[in-house]
Write a structure and sequence with these properties.
Helices cover 43% and strands 16% of the residues. The chain is of the alpha/beta class and 332 residues long. The protein is globular. It binds nicotinamide-adenine-dinucleotide and thymidine-5'-diphospho-beta-D-xylose.
Length: 332
């Protein structure tokens, strides 16, 4: 695979993957990104111009997508509307990008015969009870809760249908919650770190007992490249790194890092339909493809991420006020 098209490559996880690809392969990389509010050109700074180019465009625009896909051997599809809270405020762009956009890409890879990897989320499986001994596997039934996760679930099903009906050469991965540098301040971990840095308090939805299964974005990237290289066509792989923590524990780790009291946070209005717990069993990816995560210690990965946000205030500060105003309007 010499020429790889990465959709959403100017966002949080997509840009990390582009850096990973440049370091780990000799591929020529094209990023196709609409540069929505969630994107940042700064994430791609420092990459060699001879290896990486950015095309600004919409994945739902067949006029842009079809000629571009035809120039590439493989497409790795990260572009999405990605934030649950936004999908509760206005689901419309989620339907357009996550469903119509994925459909448009699938039609283009069908015509061009390109390899396709679809990046999805564990949220398609709904949620688990706190004391459920089972975790999500590739056999878990689809049961999404939010407009975001339902559009991601729908996009996964489109990919499966295009594999079976049209022989598209695709794989799917469903990953747990990512953390690391360049994540938008609307998301949980960056929001709480930047609240503290900005002199405010972390904001915990409800009682804070909801559990997320955290993985460093670098480990997500290595897993996606592993699947792109050696995944079996038509297969789904779950990606996770055994990082279950409840939200209260994460907030307390952040407060402790800054030397603040562990109760120095606010309980705010809970998210509507808030999923209780996500947990991934990544046995298939580990045993069949030999992948394993590198960032196995969440506490030290979180500490490094906190340091990164402290050092990159110029990057997140311009977005902070508008994000907090949108949350405040919802009592969050
Ligand atoms: P993000 O919101 O940080 O980035 C999304 C990127 O997609 C942005 O650069 C944006 O400009 C681009 N984009 C949005 N709509 C577009 C369109 N119509 N055309 C072209 N580009 C468009 O998201 P992220 O957190 O980096 O997530 C990337 C992918 O990984 C998504 O598919 C998401 O569902 C999936 N995922 C995310 C997580 C997580 O924890 N963040 C976990 C599992 C899976
Ligand atoms: O201020 C907050 N307070 C809070 O308690 C915010 C923003 C969130 N939360 C809670 C909600 C969740 O239980 O923290 C948890 C994580 O929230 P998000 O960062 O919004 O992530 P989540 O909804 O779990 O979804 C994320 O992981 C799966 C990504 O945003 C998705 O793109 C991915 O598919």
């Amino acid at each position: 695979m010499d020429r790889i098209l990465v959709t959403g490559g100017a966002g949080f996880i997509g840009s990390n993957f582009v850096h990973h690809l440049v370091a780990a392969t000799d591929a020529q990389v094209t990023v196709l990104d609409k540069l929505t509010y969630a994107a940042s050109r700064a994430t791609l700074a420092g990459l060699p111009e001879s290896r990486v180019r950015l095309v600004v465009g919409d994945i739902a625009d067949a006029g842009v997508v079809e000629p571009l896909v035809a120039e590439h051997d493989a497409v790795v599809h990260f572009a999405a509307e990605s934030h649950n809270d936004n999908s509760l405020r206005d689901p419309s762009p989620f339907v357009q990008t996550n469903l119509v956009g994925t459909f448009t890409l699938l039609e283009a890879v069908r015509k061009a015969g390109a390899r396709f990897h679809h990046v999805s989320t564990d949220e398609v499986y709904g949620d688990l009870e706190l004391d459920d001994p089972e975790r999500f596997t590739e056999a878990s039934p689809y049961d999404p809760s939010s407009p975001y996760s339902s559009t991601k679930a729908g996009s996964d099903l489109l990919v499966r249908a295009w594999v079976r009906s049209f022989g598209v050469q695709a794989t799917i991965s469903n990953c747990s919650n990512n953390y690391g540098p360049w994540q938008h301040v609307e998301k949980f971990i960056p929001r709480q770190i930047t609240n503290v840095v900005a002199g405010g308090r972390p904001k915990l939805y409800g009682a804070g007992l909801n559990v997320r299964d955290w993985i460093h974005t670098e480990d997500h990237s290595s897993a996606v490249l592993t699947i792109l290289r050696s995944g079996k066509i038509g297969e789904t792989y779950l990606i996770g790194a055994d990082g279950e923590r409840n939200n209260l524990e994460v907030v307390q780790l952040i407060l402790r890092h800054f030397g603040r009291p562990e109760d120095d946070f606010d309980h705010v209005t809970d998210r509507a339909g808030h999923d209780l717990r996500y947990a991934i069993d990544a046995t298939k990816l580990r045993t069949e493809l030999g992948w394993k995560p590198v960032y196995c210690d969440f506490e030290s990965g979180l500490a490094a991420t906190i340091d990164w946000y402290v050092a990159h205030e110029d990057w997140w500060r311009p977005h902070k006020e508008a994000v907090e105003a949108a949350y405040a309007a919802k009592g969050q």
